[in-house]
Amino acid sequence: MQRGMLFHTLLAPESGGYVEQMVIDLEEAVDAHRFQEAWNAAANRHEVLRAAFRWEGLDDPVQSFAAQVTLPWQEVDLRPLSSSAQNERLENFIKEDRKRGFNLSQPPLMRGTLFRRGELSYRFILTTHHLLFDGRSWRILLKQVFDVYENRIESLEKTAPFTNYLTFLQQRDTAAEREFWRQTLSGFETPNLFAFQTAPRDAHKTTLATAEKSTVIPSETTASLKALADRHGVTLNTIMQATWALLLQCYSGQNDVVYGVTRSCRRSGLEGGDHTVGLFINTLPLRVTLSPTMTWSELLKATRSAWQAMRSFEHAPLEEVQTWSDVSKGTPLFDSIFMFESYQLNEEMRAQGASWQSRRFQLLEQTNNPITLAIYGGDTLLIRLEYDTQRFSEQSIDRVLGHFREVVIATARNPETPLNAVSLLTPAEQRELVTDWAAPVFPIPDGGGYLPLFDEQVSKTPDHIAVESEQGTLTYRQMDDEANRLAHYLRKRGVGSHSRVGVCIERGQRMGVVFLGIWKAGAAYVPLDPAYPKDRLSFMIQDSGMKVLITEAKLQSILPSPDVQHILLDADWAAISAEPSTSLKNELNGQSLAYVIYTSGSTGQPKGVELIHRGLINHNLDAQYKFKLGEKDRVLQICSLSFDISVEEMFPTWLSGATLVPAPRGRVLPDQAFTRFVREKRLTILDFSTAFWHEWVQDLERSGQSVPESVRLVVVGGEKASTAIFDRWQQLTGGRVRWIDTYGPTETTVAVTSFEPGAAGDKVTSEGGKSIGRPLRNTTTYVLDSWGRLAPVGVPGELLLGGACLARGYLNRPDLTAEKFITKTVGSGPAERLYKSGDLVRWRPDGNLEFMGRIDHQVKIRGYRIELGEIETRLMKLDGIQQALVLARQDSPGDLRLVAYLVAESSKRSIPELKASLGQQLPPHMVPSAWVFLDKLPMTPNGKIDVKSLPAPTKEGGSGDEAATPPSDELERQLMVIWEQVLGVKHISRTDNFFDLGGHSLLAVRLFSLIEKRFGRNLPLVTLFEAPTVEQLAGIMRQQGWEPKWGSLVPIKPTGSKPPFYCVHGVGGNILEYLDLANYMDPDQPFYGIQAVGLDGVKPPLESIEAMAAHHITEMRNLQAEGPYHVGGSSFGGLVAYEIAQQLVANGEEVALLAFFDTQGPDYPRFLPGVTQWQNKLNRFKERIELHWDNFRVTETDRKWDYITVKAKRARKILRDTFRRWKADRAAKHQTKANGEPLPEAIRSVGDAAKRAAAAYVPKPYGGPVTLFRATEQPRGIYEDRSLGWAPLIKGELTVYDTPGHHGAIVREPRARILAEQLKDSLRRVNSAKNSAKKILQPQA
């Protein structure tokens, strides 16, 4: 014990830690000299009071004792001061004297100060160090001092010297102690933390700012507790310890509880120790295991057994016990210390006799523990709690004391009560949780379901626009009429009450018509996302039992199950519109099924959640009120219809007379194009995922754009919102735009709570989690701990939800419905139906709920709720996988991603293969983005997976800590050194793929530059595609006279079962710029670059686009004999791809995808009047500067230097080549020889030939579909044209994606990731449509 105190004192000598001050008020005449001598007599009687400590230059500290000491003494007369001035002076003295501390090597470590306050009023303060003696020594010491002072004894009796105890400690059996404590603490790995602490544990903190709070257990309850102790054969100390154990279980959520206890150690270590002054006490861990069904009597027995078992081993130093435990090194075993004294010092001393009645005693202490609970017995019980003010608020400590009182009172009343039936809550706190913070109650007009409310709005605003989309607009009357027609059409096809109708459509003009028409027919809708894999869609169709599915012609082919009748919203609309517009009889009510949404399931299959009209109406009316929706609002619809935020976007809007504005079809990104769309459409309310909002805020900052003035409200939900981004949002908007964060599982109808930060400095997130606010109307929210009790404020527990929001249950899953939807009595209220959300939350002191995470394996990423167990189940079914664990990791701020940890057989499959296999079974958002292979999963001593020991992925998609294959010779070793230098990855293998390790185009340039510098070999960059490993590259470099094989077709990523995508070179002829794009494509998607003829310096470049196309087709057909073909190109490459498509179609081949990456048409751009040639050049120069600055800003931090280096080298090369050309041209002109050889004419002329070919090319009209990926940053001073001049030539469908970035930059990092997502989306669409629309496209004249 002394060693630990000495350590902390030396660590922070001015902290006042372990300095004690005995304050004695004497309301009597005091003989100051005699009083001083009495203290000196005591100091010289007890050797420990003459102790000093030496440690410098020694292996272990040594305690020595002076032969005689004189107590430092000071007398201060305060009588001239007023009472208030005296109190202030005394308070300041106590603080300063504590801070003054002691020189531990100079005895005595005590000093006394006697203050005179009046004629018969004194205050004596004895300051000492806790190193000398413990609390029980005060009673001995004070009695002896006052006995000498009052002449009751002439000299002090001799007692056993404290050095005898020190000798005993040196002779104890440490081996037995080690064995006992190892067994006692075996398996305890995680200390019990207080969930409500305001700051995390700081292991390096040397000082504490402490405060103290106390409460008193009244005498009647104390008497009952003493009687209870007698009946059970335990002490009052045992009852108090058991109470503290129960509180710790609740606060930490752990049934295995360990806290510090103070042992007196007097009887087991020294004969006569009860009369000796010294530091006998020792602090040790006491471990108690609790269970919810355990009774108080059983807990008392377990606590007593644990306390008694340590008696023979109570002298072991705590620092050694710590090393014998399973708790990580550097982490304290416990955060709280429990102390019990059977008496209260003041009452004990005053009971000595009549002369003691004029004296009051108070001990002021400061420990180094976050929480010290000290209990003092007597007729009443004094509960004193000292706490670290930086970790705990005064309010939370008041609650702890209240909880302690409640549990003690409950114990006294009924000791046979099961522990899970014992409430910690005070009546005031229970009233807060159940009543004061409850949701308001309103009537729900759910007769007839949603439709009567919609009909009422139609009658109010029949001619107001209900939907405004790219495809057209619909008024409220028109939408109602068309919905009625669809309802009639559905009825004729067997749809009626209790039917479920599938919906697989893209957002657009008739979304509302579809949903309302289904309801008007008496049925419910089941949304199907066309991006889902066929197997998943097939399961949803079969599981839902739908017989009718509403879709569109182009999506029909992706939908399985021929048993389902398809209604095509476009092709069948003529027949639908022929139906009457009259309303059918409304057969709905509040309990009728409204829709079924499928979410991730832990069994490997999704589960269908059945939502009813009552919950829908309740949510819509609350949103209508909270969002202040009105007829002038224009609401964005952006979310997938299979995502329940779409419910919040659409249906409250149509109860308010507002206009719904669907975003353009295709993937919508939070970029400048999106901002422009919001501004042009004058949107007032935006509702999307938190992740989308995060990215939009950052894009607004990068682009310098402002939030459109029309926007008045933004609603987010899903992931934890960033406080930093919210602060930047407030700066962007000036606080003008309301911001609401909503929360809710699918099972509770979209949202059940909402949080809107106010002007009072509400934080969006805290150290623990994110605020999700307060419950919506008619919603019940309970936070229950792991034992099913109401959790106190600040303590996490599972959120149980009830009220009007609840779903009917899970379709075809009665077992799961019974498990998750329970009937339970909470508190003193009636039994009610509740949904177990599985979400870990806690109440904040302000009445807001705070989301902490999941208690199971579900996570939420980009708004999608994901069951990690489902992914693990799918992985375990793949060949070669022995174990699989999937986690959601956030290794860098804002980058929450799925990471798969795999134990595979020796012949394990590659990461691209695994991604491809998993992608065929799961949606893209459920496929892990990073993969780590391990020999085995790390385990804790208890046999559980040690999640904390799992390594972070070294690179995105990297394989983690695999054993590296060593180099075979010096060449490979040197290449490995270069690779590690370039990639920033250690311990690579000779068989590692450069691109799998995170290599990209910028790093490839740097790699080959270092290879040329080291070996003098100037290798073409294309070589890296042929030889992407150290082993393969070294093999090529060993070959004498090796020359790269020439061909236009370059296999950038040749593996995969899908039809290849061919990407044509730009004006420079090289295809290296497509490397980044290829890396982000699906693992199963082959990607080939087509480079220009002439780059080898042997063949001359081709002079026309027609000739280029013909040559490239020949090489394409060598790889792929027949269509469908997928071809595209960036800028000039798009022109060549256009001609390739024309020639292929003319030869009877099918071109499924023709993609332009910002390729400009013949008459684009057209400059506005008044824009001069010089202004145009200046604008182009500005655009180049902005391009590089934009790229640099969004480039990942670890790649910024690569970007600067490569661009600088490129600029230097351009200047050098320009100078060489000038010298060569000048030499030729003057018939003199130039210094230095210019580049070969054929290579230099590839770009020139391309420019001449482009100028001469006259594109003909094309009859097939074209997909244009348009860079959002277009030239200044031009007429805007979203088609980039292609609209007059494209006779088929022209689909335009807005891709953030400048011309040419969209195909490279850091924009390539976004373009890849858009290209993948386009490929999915054309591949899904080809089976339903196979035909040969002919060019038009």
Description:
The protein has 1341 residues and is α/β, with parallel strands linked by helices. Helix content is 35%, strand content 20%. Strands 24, 25, 26, 27, 28, 29, 30, 32, 33 and 34 form a 10-stranded mixed sheet that branches. It has a 7-stranded mixed sheet with strand order 40-42-41-43-44-45-46, sandwiched between helices. Strand 16 (500-504), helix 17 (511-520) and strand 17 form a beta-alpha-beta unit. The chain is elongated.
The radius of gyration is 39 Å
Secondary-structure class: alpha/beta
The N- to C-terminal Cα distance equals 97 Å
How would you describe the shape? Answer: elongated
Percent of residues in beta strands?
15-25%
Number of strands: 46
Largest sheet: 10 strands, mixed
Helix content: 25-40%
Count of alpha and pi helical runs: 38
Q: What ranges have pLDDT less than 50 throughout 5 or more consecutive residues?
A: 955-963, 1220-1242, 1331-1341
**Mean pLDDT across every amino acid position:** 84
List keywords for this structure.
alpha/beta, 1341 residues
Topology (elements, then pairings):
Layout: H1 2-11, E1 19-26, H2 32-45, E2 51-54, E3 62-65, E4 73-77, H3 83-100, E5 110-118, E6 121-129, H4 135-149, H5 162-170, H6 174-185, E7 210-217, H7 219-232, H8 236-252, E8 256-263, H9 266-269, E9 282-289, H10 296-309, H11 318-323, E10 336-341, H12 345-350, E11 359-364, E12 371-376, E13 381-388, H13 394-413, H14 427-436, H15 451-460, E14 465-469, E15 472-475, H16 476-492, E16 500-504, H17 511-520, E17 524-527, H18 534-544, E18 548-551, E19 565-568, H19 573-577, E20 593-599, E21 607-612, H20 613-626, E22 634-637, H21 645-650, E23 659-662, H22 672-680, E24 685-689, H23 690-703, E25 713-717, H24 723-733, E26 738-743, E27 753-755, E28 770-775, E29 779-784, E30 797-803, E31 809-810, H25 814-820, E32 821-825, E33 831-843, E34 849-854, E35 858-861, E36 864-867, H26 868-876, E37 881-889, E38 897-904, H27 911-919, E39 930-933, H28 970-983, H29 1001-1015, H30 1023-1026, H31 1030-1038, E40 1049-1053, E41 1061-1064, H32 1075-1079, E42 1087-1090, H33 1105-1119, E43 1125-1130, H34 1132-1146, E44 1151-1157, H35 1173-1194, H36 1200-1229, ...
Parallel strand pairs: 4-5, 8-10, 10-12, 16-17, 16-18, 18-19, 22-23, 24-25, 25-26, 38-39, 41-42, 41-43, 43-44, 44-45, 45-46
Antiparallel strand pairs: 1-6, 1-11, 2-3, 5-6, 7-13, 8-9, 12-13, 14-15, 20-21, 21-31, 26-27, 27-28, 28-34, 29-30, 30-33, 32-33, 33-34, 35-36, 37-38, 40-42
Helix pairs in contact: 2-4, 7-13, 8-10, 8-13, 16-17, 23-24, 28-29, 29-36, 33-34
